[in-house]
What we know:
Elements: E1 5-9, E2 12-17, E3 22-26, H1 37-43, E4 48-53, H2 68-79, E5 86-91, H3 93-104, E6 109-115, H4 126-142, H5 144-155, H6 162-172, H7 177-185, E7 203-206, H8 215-221, E8 228-231, H9 239-242, H10 244-258
Parallel strand pairs: 3-4, 3-5, 5-6, 6-7, 7-8
Antiparallel strand pairs: 1-2, 2-4
Helix pairs in contact: 1-10, 2-3, 4-5, 5-6
Amino acid sequence: xxxxxxxxxxxxxxxxxxxxxxxxxxxxxxxxxxxxxxxxxxxxxxxxxxxxxxxxxxxxxxxxxxxxxxxxxxxxxxxxxxxxxxxxxxxxxxxxxxxxxxxxxxxxxxxxxxxxxxxxxxxxxxxxxxxxxxxxxxxxxxxxxxxxxxxxxxxxxxxxxxxxxxxxxxxxxxxxxxxxxxxxxxxxxxxxxxxxxxxxxxxxxxxxxxxxxxxxxxxxxxxxxxxxxxxxxxxxxxxxxxxxxxxxxxxxxxxxxxx
Length: 259
């Protein structure tokens, strides 16, 4: 494996490997740069791969505020000092941060790959409200372990994913309850949907077959992007960890096609 080191920058922890064009990987809520290991190993042969721990996650600062714009501003400060623009790959919360990066620092964003992302977090349907409330309720009553068990089952179902599910749960329970709660509570009301037309770079939207958000709803949310393509592989919400080889193959083709 190529060199893989963790460096610190203004409270952020960044896992870096390889040389070449800059490829930035942004994880989902309650995750960390560790969950991008398969992508770091694969893409560092041809890219300078940087996987960040967003504020409140992994080895990065555990101090608030934890709203999406602030999480993005942390990354903006680092990215603005880099000599080149970057492809930004974001999963879920990471996709929300990626959209903010494209709006806050457009000249440093070459393009976006958004995996099961949204352009707004408004909890409009009873199902969305129930799911969000259930997570907060379990967190308040029982702590991180029941959520780790529940999410592990949701994200990585089936007997062939036992090892991945176990690793996810072990990592997830390392999150601090107070910080995770603050991150979760900062999400409702966030939206960049009205500003999507300002993102002129190519955007690849990946919407997996078994994600929480229906494909039609995701297409509706991103309809105003002027330069977007949509891709619908078979998988669940955390597809890069569920099927690393399938995701790596699609991302490689997207970078070659759009770059």
